[in-house]
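Q: Could you fold this chain for me?
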Amino acid sequence: MPIIGDRPDINLNAVIYATDFSSCSENAGRHARLLANQLPAKLFVAHAFLLSEPAQEVEARDLSVSQQRKDLEQTLGARARALSTSTVEARPVLLDGTPGDAVPACAEANAPALIVLGTHGGGRIEHGLVGSTAERILRSSRWPCLTVGPQAPTPSGTALPFHRILYATDFTPAAANAAVYALTFAGLTAGTIDTLNVIPPRSDENDPPLASLAERYRRALDNLVPEQSRDFCNPQTYIEVGNAHDRIVEHIHKHAIDLLVLGIRKTSHIGLVMRTSGAFRIIADASCPVLTITA
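A: Sure. Below is the predicted structure, expressed as structure tokens.
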């Protein structure tokens, strides 16, 4: 783990804010601007699209820019200008292709990068840049993704509002990678960290006693936070029994969590299983932004 003084550090060159121009993605843009300012990193405002058939004909036949592309460039430029400040220049990037392919490619071209996405509608991932598209982005990109859901509050100040961070782990390699990000954001925001492990319900009488299993996990959780980081992030350790989704969402509400950090993998019990389960259900139901690190 890289250390600067007593605090961990991640090296990010760019923040890729992927927008579909909906009002639901505007909150994600505000988070992206704050991230770019505090990391610090370059801020790219990206929109991925496919040319309509008439536009394809115009560009192929006349070798000129179609009206569709001109309109998107104008809209994207306006969004970038609205996000720019005296300390952050938001750069518009119009991407040819589907979001699931083009956004991870943009992150790769500007690596190391962090992707920022917005989600739509009613506490469930449904349309546009979310749902199956978001799943493809998270699966395709090796870079972390911050997903800002419809229940996440809009930041009102000029600093990241991540004062209390929940780091949920199942002790996989992906979860270990996520610990670095949890500690880094705690350092950026002078925030505290809750570390949480959810134990599946015991169904076999030959399973280890719950008390001894919980104590083993508690010691492992305590060891995830380096001694030199404890003074600034004030870690609190929690062991819960039950469904991972339910326990994580409950913890977010009960402890007023500002950022959830998840390390996910395809076979993890809180990982990318399908669109309506695992990490995507957590992202949709969380009342705070969710940072996912895939391995």
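A (continued): The chain has two domains: 3-148, 164-294.
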